[in-house]
Structure formats: C-alpha cells, structure tokens
Amino acid sequence: MRRIGLAVVLALSLLAPLAVEGQQAGKIPKIGWLAAGSAAGVAPLTGAFRQGLRQLGYVEGKDIVIEYRYAEGKFDRLPDLAGEIVHLKVDVIVVAQVDAIRAAKQATATIPIVMIGPGDPVGLGLITSLARPGGNLTGLSFLSTELAGKRLELLKEAFPTISRVAVLGTSGSSQEVKEIEVAALTLGIHVRAVVVQSPDDFENAFVTIARDNVSALLILRSPLIRTHATRIAELAAKKRLPTMYDDKLFLEAGGLMSYGTDTIGFYSRAAYFVDKILKGAKPADLPVEQPTKFELVINLKTAKALALTIPQAVLLRADEVIQ
After folding, report:
1. Highest mean pLDDT: which range of 119-123, 175-179, 316-320
2. What's the predicted TM-score (pTM) here?
3. SS3 label, residue 130
4. Is there a single domain that holds both residue 46 and residue 188?
5. Most buried in the list 19, 97, 229, 304, measured by CB within 10 Å?
6. How many helices (H) and strands (E) in the chain?
C-alpha cells in the first residue's frame, strides 16, 4: 500500500508542472487597441489589422482577444482610456496618432506598445532610434513629415498657377506644416495654416480659407480629419478647391489627389510586430519600419465634377487613376 501511495504522489508531482504549462500554453493573448478617433472612422484600418492577425493564424475571440478603446476625437480622454487598457493586463497595446501613443507610454513602461503612423518618432521623442527604439515601444512610421513637402510639389505640378495654399490640420501637425513651409519657399507659394480641433471648427475653417483667397488645399493626417473626410471633401467642393491628401482612402470620400503609402497595408503589417512580441521578442530590439513605396492617386471623377483639368504628364505619373 505504501508503494502504491508513493507512486501516486510521484505521479501527481510529475503531472503538476505539466498542468501549469498546459494552462500557460492555453492562455489566450490579449491586445489593447487604443484609437484617438471613432470606431466608424477607423473601421477600415481596424479591419486591416485583424486581417493581418488572421494571416498569422490568430482568430479574434478564439486565439486572441482585442480590447477596443476609442476617444471619439476627444484627446483629453486618451490618458484614462490608456489606463483602462493597462488595468486589463493586456499583453501588448496597439496604438496610432501621436497623442494616443504618448498616453499609452505614460500609462505603462512595461507593457509592449506597437505604434502605427507617427511621421518622425525619433524627433518626437517617442523612441531612441529607428534601428533600436529602446524602451517598450516599436512599430511603423508613415514618413508623413518628410513627404509633406513632396505633396505640395505635386499639387503645384498639377496646378501650376496656384500661389496660395491652405494647409488644414490639427495642433499635432506642426512638424508637417514646417516641412511644407520650407518647400513653399522654393516653389514661390504662400502657405496659410488652418487648425481645427473639433468637428465644430470645419465651417469656420473654410470661411477663413475662402477669405484668404487660397487656390488649393493640402490636408494633413489626423483622426479628426479622417472621421470627417466626406464633410471636408464637400466643403472643398463648394469652394471648388483642388485637394491633396496623404492617403488614397480619402479619395473614396471625394478627395482629388493623394500621395503616400498604403495605409491599409501598414495596419495589416502591425500584426507582424504583435506576433513577434507574443512569441517573446522585446520591443526595444524590433526596428521601427518605414515605407519604401509611395503611390500617387488621382480621382478624375472629382476633377470633372469641379471642372478641373489635370495635366497629362501628371496623369501618366499616377500609380492609380480613379475614373
């Protein structure tokens, strides 16, 4: 009997570690998703991220759980929402937009953070370097700051007579505005920066734009502007203004031109970083990725509606023309 009892004790002692390992292996990873905009406004991007996860073998609700938090354009809510996500003890946080990234960094120095989008994360003080970001933050940069001047050049090529251009953005767009102002000096263009902070600002912004007699409009990336893309396109159409964006997704809302990277592909790529971190990689050791391909897209449908003529040379340079 003693031998049998001893055998049972030994068997249980051997099985116990296996049971613990089984529980750990069976744990479903939890992702925190923090967005400065609304659920509807970033739906295509959220969908792209989920698609990226599926391609890596993660099925939401089965192999992975995502906790979504949206600030609905109210940036003062971001610190509390980031705190909520941290309190949920997620394994990794995915976040876009500079204010949201800062909120996540302030909320935790230990939970890995995958960022999507800031144009100059080193200059903004978010990371130490692209190659070795350091801390708990890594991800992708859109290079939007460096490309801001190029968008103004393309706008000038399409409409050579323009001399006054309005730049519509938020208070977080100051770096891009500086790049545009540098390019404007070379091109002989006067730039008028117009800042919006809430949906209520758009009407007054376009009153200001009309009063300044600008001949074109360059629109900068932000959750607020993405959420109200259709409204901005309608207001620009009323003023018959050519518009340049950094993302072809805006052209679906009626925008005229865009030059930038594949945003959908970028959000899908963020899943790669999540996968690496869940498998044990440290954010500090994962280099921040930047785009290598940029697309010029022109919406001829909008051009015709506004009675605008795009030079053939510019059309031939376009990667995509929407008829």
Report:
1. 316-320
2. 0.79
3. coil
4. no
5. 97
6. 12, 12
| pLDDT bracket for residue 229 (50, 70, 90) | confident
pLDDT, one tens digit per residue, over 187-217 is 999 999 999 988 899 999 999 999 999 999 9
Residue 2 lies in a domain: no
Report the candidate in 45, 70, 76 with the shortest Cα–Cα distance to residue 221.
45
H helix runs in the chain, sequence order: 2-25, 43-55, 78-87, 98-107, 144-158, 174-187, 202-211, 223-227, 229-238, 263-278, 300-305, 312-317
pLDDT tens digits for 173-191?
777 888 899 999 999 999 9
Domains contained in the chain, number: 2
Using alpha carbons only, give the angle 61, 73, 169 rounded to the nearest 5 degrees. 125
Residue 308: CATH number of its domain: 3.40.50.2300
Q: What are phi and psi of 117, to 5 degrees?
A: 115, -30
User: Same structural domain for residues 150 and 239?
Assistant: yes
Determine the structural domain holding residue 113 and report its residue range: 29-143+263-285
